[in-house]
Structure formats: structure tokens, C-alpha cells
Amino acid sequence: MREQDAGETAGRRGGVIRALLGVERRLDGAGPTEGAVSSGKASESGGEERKAAVVRVVAADMAPALQRRAFRCARDELAAMPHFPRRLEPKRLALALKKEFDTAYGPAWHCIVGTSFGSYVTHARGGFLYFSVDKVYILLFRTAVEPSSPIDDEQTNGL
Question: Which of 11, 43, 100, 143 has a CB 3.0–4.6 Å from the CB of 49, allowing a cystine?
Fold first, then answer.
């Protein structure tokens, strides 16, 4: 009975996440995907070719609007990589996300990108997102930056 309740709860949560992201739920022959985000591209025949990028949120402490911005930035950057998915450029993707969030939401954003990594970080409240786009995992988080005091500046300058 508990397993059924957990499955139903996970289904509802997945539906909420899909609704927040503007994600469609697709049914393939093997079963449903967690979240397929379609980016339409016009094909030569004039129709629309759909290439789905599966976005999965692993853990989040971030407003939905910021999450959507991170997903959009990651998808756009991955789509711009000429040899993706065979050749991932993690530094390029990490830099793009960091710059995007530093510019839009202030300094001290950090980004880790890869297919396999471990981490243990401290983040500012409301500034943590760990997600994947297809098989690429992205950890985006913000740390608190405290302004230095004048006394600290004088000690560093040798005064």
C-alpha cells in the first residue's frame, strides 16, 4: 500500500514539474519519459522536426522561473555545440550558465557540468539546482558574498 502511495505522489510531483517547465509527457513504445522538452526545428520539407531533450530535476531549491531560465540556457548552449552529443564541451556550458546567472541575478553563481562527478556544496537559500539534460548533469548554485571590511583591505595592502 505504501509503495502505491509513493508512486502516486511521485506521479503528481512529476506532473507539477512538467507543468512548470512547459514539458510534454510523451509515451514511447517502452513507456513514458519523465520530461521531454521539444525544440522545434523546421525541416527541409517544410514540416516541423521535433527533437526532444529530456530534462530531469534531481534536486532544487530555486524558484521555478530561475529553473526554466537554467533549462533554456542549457538546452540552447547544448544545441549550439557542433558535435554534441558525441563531444560535450562541459567548460563552455558551465561558463555560459555562470555568466547568464551572474548577469541576471548578481554575482557568486557557480556551475559544474559533466557526465560523472561528485559534489558537496553549501549554497545560498533559493540558489541551488541539480538537473540533467539528456545524459549531461548540471549543478548550478549560488554562494553568499559578503563585502570585505575596510580593515581587511588595509591589512591586505600592507598598511
Answer: 43
Whether this prediction's pTM lies above 0.70 is answered by no
Backbone angles phi, psi at 92, to 5 degrees: -65, -45
Could you tell me which of 107, 101, 91 has the C-alpha nearest to residue 140?
A: 101
**Angle at Cα 10 formed by Cα 119 and Cα 68, nearest 5°?**
60
Q: What is the pLDDT of residues 71-91, one digit of tens each?
A: 999 999 998 988 777 788 999
**In 3D, which of 70, 50, 46, 48 has the Cα closest to residue 58?**
70
pLDDT higher than 50, residue 139: yes
**From the centroid of its chain, how far is CA 104?**
15
